[in-house]
Amino acid sequence: MASMQLMRKENAIVHEVMQDSPKSPEARLGMKVEDLWDVQEPQLSPTEKLNACFESIPVSAFPPAPSSQVIEIKSDTSLAEAVQILSEHKILSAPVVDVDAPEDASWIDRYIGIVEFAGIVVWILHQSEPPSPRSTTPGSALEVAVSRVTNAAGFGILGPEDAQATSGNFFEALTSSEFYKNTKVRDIAGSFRWAPFLALQKSNSFLTMLLLLSNYKMKSVPVVDLGEAKIDNIVTQSSVIHMLAECAGLQWFESWGTKKLSEIGLPLMTRDHVVKVYEEEPVLQAFKLMRKKRVGAIPIVDSSGVKVVGNISIRDVQFLLTAPEIYHDYRSITAKNFLTAVRSYLKKHQGTSPFVSGMVVCTKNHSVKELIMKLDSEKIHRVYVVDDAGNLEGVITLRDIISRLVHEPYGYFGDFFDGVLPLPLNSRV
């Protein structure tokens, strides 16, 4: 009893300190959860309590994203311009606004989808048709190069011999071509996952948002203001992890966050199921696997298949399209060469970045809290789990952590997804 009273006293002190001088909007949101946590029925499990707390908070309470990250791209923007916009604002994707939509259009008619780095790359490669077998002229060097990569990217597994097609010269020619400069974002609408996209209203619950980011594998969720017929906020997996980091010290967070990863069933993806690419394979194989398996990043392993030497994420597609000159001296762009070239480029232009600093790893004995703090401070989306010998045992993503915070009640979404158009059947990305 004495220990329980001491714990309550400590929690009261933390509550008072955070209430008097909250660290951030995320910390204030954490206090709302704390207040709801305190009045939950004692017989409920911690997860059931959190479900009830988050169900009681509207998604409108989530702190707004930085203005630099709530970017809209017009449908008549070229692919080259779209890549530049995404790269400059350090975002993976952005909603596309239909320039032909009337001023009084609803949000469904105002937006045509969400464009992302990987979608642009894969669309370019698949839209480039190989020359006719009967043709006696080989065509331009760009057409030949694009055709070779298209054939490789479209079927089967790329091998080391295919890496020759992904030389620096290829990407320099591609990014300077009229094909790349003149194609508009609206022309690749078939690459969008939703039409226009899956969004929340401001009145939807925090729990709904967390479930979409975890169980339904959405990396970001737009929040729509129906009155303004536009996006009011964009909640990402990263912003949720940042919120959790800001809640350290609160009772509801500590009751969950102090557990070891192994205690809450992490990693979900074990060694045998990790999607990986070998360092001598073409870098395009990595991006192809990301799209095929719908994962945000994959490890690069050595010939043994268990030692991780690097990591490639969807975000890194930008380095193929915005700085192709860094590969000019490479005979081919293997995954290994890609890492070497980009790290050298970033050290020269940016000083430090998660890409340059190498792999971030942990063990199953780390706590959830330690992992959250690491992910938030390093601004990364995944951590690789290794054993004492440094061998790969699994991977933990932001989505995995969120999925262990709440659970989906039976029949929770009901008809929520009715009327939402899924990925087009003829879409290749």
From TrEMBL:
<dbReference type="InterPro" id="IPR046342">
    <property type="entry name" value="CBS_dom_sf"/>
</dbReference>
<dbReference type="InterPro" id="IPR050511">
    <property type="entry name" value="AMPK_gamma/SDS23_families"/>
</dbReference>
<feature type="domain" description="CBS">
    <location>
        <begin position="269"/>
        <end position="330"/>
    </location>
</feature>
<keyword id="KW-0129">CBS domain</keyword>
<keyword id="KW-0677">Repeat</keyword>
<protein>
    <recommendedName>
        <fullName>CBS domain-containing protein</fullName>
    </recommendedName>
</protein>
<feature type="domain" description="CBS">
    <location>
        <begin position="355"/>
        <end position="413"/>
    </location>
</feature>
<dbReference type="Pfam" id="PF00571">
    <property type="entry name" value="CBS"/>
</dbReference>
<feature type="domain" description="CBS">
    <location>
        <begin position="66"/>
        <end position="132"/>
    </location>
</feature>
<dbReference type="InterPro" id="IPR000644">
    <property type="entry name" value="CBS_dom"/>
</dbReference>
